[in-house]
Amino acid sequence: MPTLGFLKKKRTREGNTDPSPPSNPTSPVTPTAVRAFDQTSVPSLTPSHSITSQATSQYGSAPKPDVQVDAAEKQPMNTLPIQQQYAPPQHTPSPGTEPQNLPRISNLINPPQHDGPSPYQQQQIGLGFAPAPVNGGAPGSLPQPPTMAPTQHPQQQQSSAPATAQAQLDQARVTKGKYSLADFEILRTLGTGSFGRVHLVQSRHNQRFYAVKVLKKAQVVKMKQVEHTNDERRMLAEVKHPFLITLWGTFYDSRNLYMVMDFVEGGELFSLLRKSGRFPNPVAKFYAAEVTLALEYLHSRNIIYRDLKPENLLLDRHGHLKITDFGFAKRVPDKTWTLCGTPDYLAPEVVSNKGYNKSVDWWSLGILIYEMLCGYTPFWDGGSPMKIYENILRGKVKYPAYINPDAQDLLERLITADLTKRLGNLYGGSQDVKSHRWFSEVTWDRLARKDIDAPYTPPVKAGAGDASQFDRYPEETERYGQSGHDEYCALFPDF
To answer: Where would one find the signal peptide in this protein (predicted)?
Structure first.
């Protein structure tokens, strides 16, 4: 496959002010309880594609340059810049060209018994790790937030989602004013953006490591991102799921806002995908399945995510996903009209400025799956975002011959402008997506418990504050925690 140099730079985002009226997984700093279901090795990604110290991550925190829709740019602190040049990876055979060498998703769930490694496995990275105990992960001495309720079947979710969501809202975690700068030792910068940066910190109470996102109030106000910043904080405080980033608490001083979140050591899925070129069918299926469970959970709470893409998917120490960057997330019971997101991933109803609902996330899931399988997005154009919008509205998708037929069938049902045919938007909701034959071998309850080993394990030292997957940045020169007049205090009441 030819080198896609244009994809080595991260994509810009669209964002403007919405004209319509305006949570918690086990922390990576707390070892995740994952039990191996078999003693055999699980097929993994190619050995030459291990993430190096040049890989990047973002925590929904270090922004990429954004395309302006209004006079001000939307550059939330949520995406790190792409790493500097690295040696082009040596690609393994493309999916579909040598199917006999590719792992099946059934192997990811139930590894086959054999005396020796297969030719494919002999080329792979080992994925085994010992089960880890579960213990408290909050930065301070305060008790852990309540544990997540058992997952319901989709049919039950449809009937009880509103009541369940309201009950969960009534029991929202306490995150406001929970910590202070004195609770942490700032170690290094993980990423920077137009109105702040993300720091790796260590708790002075439990010695665990966290990511603290620091936003400069004046810059947030200047770039007209007050509403999105408050929405991000509000949504993160309400959600709690194994595949979503955790917000442990927030606080502020006269100049800055602080958000204490998981430190997810493994870096972005974006980096792994660019180094791999494209993913084999079962690898793409694994990551897509975890994203599907996360979207199902968010939608059960009437939350639209609106910014799904590889840059916003972090890998934890065991290789499982965590969705980050909730700057565009919003509670939408019915419809909204905001033009926001990344051009490549925008649904046609968003581009055409029509009211839209949760179905835009299922469209984005289709684009994500396509990019994982092909290495590029279906509507990408070398010109301006307007060219991408024209392609999206035209709606013509070319599927390479190596794409699995079942995967193509799912993509055709997700990447469709006809809302009466788009999976996830029909009567069956998310269950229609999960029941598609491409996912037929996925054991959803085990995946939700992380009982299935990931196809790739980041090369990091667990629980040691290993930031080798992040670029180095000049450290902040401004002293945090300064007192004085706070002219923007009233704009951020939830912090």
So the answer is: none
